[in-house]
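Researcher: Here's a chain I'd like modeled. Treat it as a single chain, no partners, no ligands.
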Amino acid sequence: MATLPVYRWHLAPDGYATRRQLRARDLRPGGQGVAAQLERPRRRRGPLVAYLYRVDLAKPVRPMTAARWAALAKANAARRICPRCRRDAGYVIPPSLGMCVPCAFPESTEFLRSA
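Model: Modeled as a single isolated chain. Structure tokens:
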């Protein structure tokens, strides 16, 4: 079992990148495993860890097809539909409420409707 090389924060050698850094370059890990990790020390807790991937083994991001765009639009539309009243809320319904604001707080919206 091999151990990963560990680098301190901001001291990783060239040729390694995090997922976000790869994505900024229009790359993805492409099935490769984690090559190294960064550790940022903290005072009272364990260190923050960031996983690094090799840039030379990264693959280009797959392009969005028309079917993927349609599926994404359908999924985003479903997040706007209230499960209780079945109306489009006009915004993404917060998971903490699970329904649109008028359904979650009907007594508050009665005052707004009468005004």
